[in-house]
Amino acid sequence: MTTSPMTTTPTSPRPRPSRVPLSPSNIQVRAGSHSLEALTGQEQYAFATEVVVHPGFSDQDGEGSYADDLMLLRIQPALTVTPFVQPLTLPSAPPAPGTNCTVMGWGTTTSPEGMGHPGGEAGGRAE
């Protein structure tokens, strides 16, 4: 795998609201992990070398504060593709408006309560 950007959220690496700046030196990536508490030996580690936060993101709590909670990271060293670390395949075009979409990950659908769990699923309609 190359050092192509990977996606995460600005709220993942730090609690909200936070005075810790979002800079590459403050972010370490752990890929291939299925549990925050237990290590399996399948994990890979990398450091962020570049951080790009969605321009609409606000780290202030409040209604809609997670609306643009998206961040890209460029990492080093490159991750190795394994059964536990896989690239995300993006569609070649956005879904048509009104299409039902599903995403999976560590997130929560009841933010800000709780961290969520791996394999968490959320759905919505494309706009």
From TrEMBL:
Disordered: annotated segments: 1-26, 92-127
GO cellular component: secretory granule
Keywords on record: Disulfide bond
InterPro entries: Peptidase_S1_PA, Peptidase_S1_PA_chymotrypsin, Trypsin_dom
Compositionally skewed regions (Gly residues) per UniProt: 116-127
Biological process, per Gene Ontology: proteolysis
Compositionally biased region (Polar residues): 99-111
Any Pfam family matching the protein: Trypsin
Biased composition (Low complexity): 1-11
GO MF annotation terms: serine-type endopeptidase activity
Residues of the Peptidase S1 domain: 24-111
Name listed for the protein in its UniProt record: Peptidase S1 domain-containing protein
Taxonomic classification: Eukaryota, Metazoa, Chordata, Craniata, Vertebrata
